[in-house]
Amino acid sequence: MQTRKLGSRGLEVSAEGLGCMGMSEFYGATDDQEAIATIHRALELGVTFLDTADVYGPFKNERLVGRALAGRRDQVVLATKFGNVRGDDGSWKGIDGRPEYVRQACEASLERLGVGHIDLYYQHRVDDSVPIEETVGAMAELVREGKVRYLGLSEAAPATIRRAHAVHPITALQTEYSLWSRDPEQEILATVRELGIGFVAYSPLGRGFLAGRFRSREDLAGDDRDFRRGHPRFTDENLARNLGIVERLEAIADAKGVTLAQLALAWVLHQGDDVVPIAGTKRRRYLEENIAAADVELTPDDLRLLDEAAPRGRTAGERYTDMSHVDR
């Protein structure tokens, strides 16, 4: 596994990271034993970048990752997030960027993870009721105390990124980016590159859609544990339209002798050496398939064909049911 630098502050991670969210929630049934085995296999394959958040589970995912890393902490760059607030019962309570909450959330994450420091600490969502300068100022205090090494933002708009970066260097911005979510190409990528901030692409497989495993809503998990059942892009009408994109991409993947998931991940990897995708999976077999994408070469002709098959704005449906919580 090759490595890439995130930002200009010296943080180096594997070219592909592992998103751990689905191991505890959102995509149907979970299996802690297989999830931990998947994390261990990722380390064996050279993955050094793990991504979690306090909100996943809620709270279960950090504990799971912490158990998986027992005795292996020095092998990974560990990223987690705060800001989306949930109750123990899973209820959503809003977004909190108050300085006192930043410290409270960090202390709780350190305890759940069972570690002495967090390598990359993100504000998961921007709190529009708290000046970003106050939130990042509190995050910077954690850096000075040695509890956090680097700071990140998730789903932040260019103006917010600039204001945050003026308070303390931001090392990484995490935002959804894939062949069916190309919004960052409009302003975000140019902004972070100007400022020397790395880009972490979450959902690089389009919530699993770009793995080619869904042909109808019946292919999703059959209960409300799979949040895609309420996702705008998975409604019957939008799903049918989006399958046209998948079919075009599958033809390109078949011609190259790779899987659709490998093609989609390779495309993200080819968007720049400062871009690191964190495909999420809870099974070793999919992990191994995803990691092999790092060896897929895409020619200029391949990239042109992919642009034509999945141009920006072609995907039917919004990324979330309600995008009001994403900073613009």
Structure description:
With 328 residues, the chain is of the alpha/beta class. Helix content is 36%, strand content 17%. It has ten helices and twelve strands. It has helices at 32-44, 60-68, 99-113, 132-144, 158-167, 188-195, 236-256, 260-269, 284-291, 300-309; strands spanning 3-6, 11-14, 17-19, 49-51, 77-82, 84-86, 92-95, 118-123, 148-154, 172-176, 198-202, 275-280. Strands 3-4-5-8-9-10-11-12 form an eight-stranded parallel β-barrel, surrounded by four helices. Strands 1-2 form a two-stranded antiparallel ribbon. Strands 6-7 form a two-stranded antiparallel ribbon. Helix 4 (132-144) packs across helix 5 (158-167), helix 7 crosses helix 8 (260-269) and helix 7 (236-256) runs antiparallel to helix 10 (300-309). The chain is globular, with a radius of gyration of 19 Å. The mean pLDDT is 92.
Set down the secondary structure blueprint.
Elements: E1 3-6, E2 11-14, E3 17-19, H1 32-44, E4 49-51, H2 60-68, E5 77-82, E6 84-86, E7 92-95, H3 99-113, E8 118-123, H4 132-144, E9 148-154, H5 158-167, E10 172-176, H6 188-195, E11 198-202, H7 236-256, H8 260-269, E12 275-280, H9 284-291, H10 300-309
